[in-house]
Specification:
binds 6-phosphogluconic acid, 6 helices, eight-stranded mixed β-sheet, alpha/beta, 296 residues
Length: 296
């Protein structure tokens, strides 16, 4: 399948070689898919195309697309691609129908350099026509960690109109992976990993000497789709453990991310995939199935 150029403001940029990907389904795991890309740029473009396809499908089927986004450095190119697909009038990404939440936040004000809100806002939201009311950030300023978590839980419950005990169903939760196997702000050994009722908690993170605000596993695992973005060799050990177990990985936070009734997508680059044991991977899917933004 020939790759189609993504046209932007007079510049015709050939999409990187995202067709040269390996796509496998994990053995005995119905809807867990691993896509291995040459590099971080291929990965970022494919992640943006996946976001676009799922946003359009959700809006067509349910009138809106509800996504939770991560902080960290890995998603920056992904955000840059989404930000660049915004020519007025093309209606490419239905920003008016998209609601953005966060998977986690640091205990800093929204303008702080470490703020996950700021990371997404600067790289994406300020560049796209998303209504302010559709941006649901975690409000930490002037609150205790527990207070910030409780406020966000209330915002999520109100937005999804959840009766007590019910879980939100995000259309897409995008996650990163730390070298220690943490994801969102669910760190190894954290009390937050055992949370089975609350949607948002504020665990102390001994490794960082601070508290973080994070959406919990029940809320993440109830999503229609979860997409990990993982690039670079420093993540290869954690990725291998998350996908293939071993090394006492049962409590590895990323390994506990298993959609209850949804799809789990691992978009990784070759460097991050360096320690995967090919033998235990399932059958390679026939032919690439990446989404081309100009064709959806
Ligand atoms: C955060 C994130 C966190 C992140 C990983 C990976 O607040 O930092 O939500 O879970 O995704 O730490 O970070 P990098 O992408 O920077 O490697």
């Amino acid at each position: 399948m020939a790759a189609t150029a993504v046209k932007r403001k007079g510049v015709t940029a050939q999409p990187p070689d995202m067709w040269r990907l390996e796509q496998v389904f994990l053995a005995n795991e119905a809807r867990i898919e691993l896509r291995v890309f040459e590099g971080a740029e291929d990965l970022a473009l494919a992640a943006a195309a996946e976001f676009l396809a799922r946003a359009r499908r959700a809006v067509a089927q349910r009138g809106r697309f509800i996504v939770a986004l991560p902080g960290g450095s890995s998603p920056s190119r992904f955000y840059a691609h989404l930000a660049s697909w915004r020519r007025p009038g093309t209606g490419r990404i239905p920003w008016a129908k998209i609601h953005v939440f966060w998977g986690d936040e640091r205990m800093v004000p929204p303008g702080h350099a470490d703020s996950n809100f700021r990371a997404v806002n600067d790289a994406l939201l300020v560049h796209v026509p998303i209504p302010q009311g559709n941006v649901h950030r975690i409000r930490t300023e002037g609150r205790s960690p527990a207070g910030a978590a409780a406020l966000y839980e209330q915002e999520v419950r109100t937005f999804f109109r959840l009766p007590a005990g019910r879980l939100p169903r995000f259309d897409l939760v995008v996650l990163g992976l730390g070298p220690d196997g943490h994801t969102a702000s669910l760190f190894p050994g954290s009390e937050a990993l055992a949370e089975d009722a609350r949607l948002v908690v504020a665990p102390p993170v001994a490794q960082l000497g601070t508290h973080r605000i994070t959406v919990t596993l029940p809320a993440i695992n109830n999503a229609r789709a979860i997409m990990f973005l993982v690039s670079g060799a420093p993540k290869s050990e954690a990725l291998a453990q998350a996908l293939q177990g071993g090394g006492g990985s049962d409590a590895l936070p990323a390994r506990l991310v298993r959609p209850r009734d949804g799809t789990l997508l691992w978009l990784v680059d070759r460097a991050a995939a360096g320690k995967l044991r090919k033998a235990s991977l399932g059958q390679a899917a026939p032919g690439p199935r990446g989404v081309n933004p100009d064709r959806t």
